[in-house]
């Protein structure tokens, strides 16, 4: 069912992946030719542009290394200290997984790459599900954040906000999406969300695709709907928008389309009023062909819950990108969430890979001496091996460590495909042991299996290391929900204690040894009340994170965030014995 435009894009993907090596060399050559004279690169390349010299002399860096240059540009110095092409603004990374938001230079070329990518990454899904642009509309939850102005007058905005600001996007919005622009730019995300759901319900017979960039935002939408469906139905029945929606943009947009529709309201009410919300998305939006959201990495913890709500509809996670660079896309949109791989697009940046090794029980640690480790080119990575991603871009990042760990799952033509493994910097540690995001995910998965048969779902979790008493111990915050309205207070405390034990048993060998020697104290699970993780999300959003790009931290480091969870604890449980 591929359309001509889609066929053209699929052909382009074939060409890019077939010629990956040559394209990568051209991308690097062009970056070096243009930028070898910048203050930053002159220090390493002395005006030369050879790949070998680049590989030998230019160091791997993190944001902290480049920050002085970026800050100088943000404060008014010319951008050619770092890159030759003029800067048009900055992307603001979400900053939730790694602390403070980062500023990434944006140029006209960066904007062009994003435009190209948006056309490309949807094309495999279009091949399977037909041209959704012609078939109907997308109910996509989108939240812009206000732009920040740097002292130099340049604007900084999240990638998603920058996209929502584009003329092309705005021009196509009414035809392709159910949400009016005012609801996306509403300063209060809750008012915006209410209105986006309202518009999505009013146009429910036209909706062919439901989603948001990240799985957690889709779930946030569903939970919000659980709490507000009666009110939404009332608004649809009467054709009047609730009074608490005070944003004038949202009210104006609503006044243009709302009229009393009691039949539609009754239908929605009947669907929402049922005891179980299993498959609710398909019931509410019967023409939806698939659910769209990233559900790999930190988002994989939401898959089970999402599958419950979208029963019968495929979950498509089709892109892998960050504020630093566009990386890859999923060529198999129908694959199972656990098999999702992203094929790298060699024209988006120059990609290198720092090998990381499997030290214990399948968990990952960096080689001890990074600087001695050769970076591997895109086309030379080995299947089954894990790497940390390093990018060189047209926008002033040279051998920049993104902080993501990826595993090569195969090749498409000559371009490698990667599974997302984890963020590198999320590590729990009391002593010498290191527990990664993946270690934690595996242990939580084992433990929460005890809840499933009892009709309870673990909806959210995060962690931190409590060193306020010696020895320190791991603390997990869990939010638990009953599948059919049961309250988590009905959960037998013995089961929670059992969950603590199961987690400890599932952690790696070093953890268990340290636990046995009492270098680490008993693992603790603190059950928090419903809505605690929404409050955490609200906190980060109030600090400037875009709801569209929000990623819950796997490990809490901010004291304020800790207080939000700690003040909502309703039960504390400890592992009764050492796991060995
Ligand atoms: P930001 O720069 O705020 O957009 O965050 C980018 C980060 O989000 C990446 O470095 C990844 O850690 C994460 N991310 C983006 N896309 C994916 C994906 N498809 N799967 C897993 N994590 C992702």
UniProtKB/TrEMBL annotation:
Please give one Gene Ontology molecular function term for this protein. Answer: acid-amino acid ligase activity
Q: Which InterPro entries match?
A: GH3, GH3_C, GH3_M
Protein's recorded name: Indole-3-acetic acid-amido synthetase GH3.17-like
* Species of origin: Gossypium raimondii (Peruvian cotton)
Q: Does the keyword Ligase apply?
A: yes
Family from the record: Belongs to the IAA-amido conjugating enzyme family.
> What keywords would UniProt list here?
Ligase
GH3 C-terminal domain sequence ranges: 439-560
A cellular-component GO term for this protein? cytoplasm
Q: Which residues form the GH3 middle domain?
A: 342-423
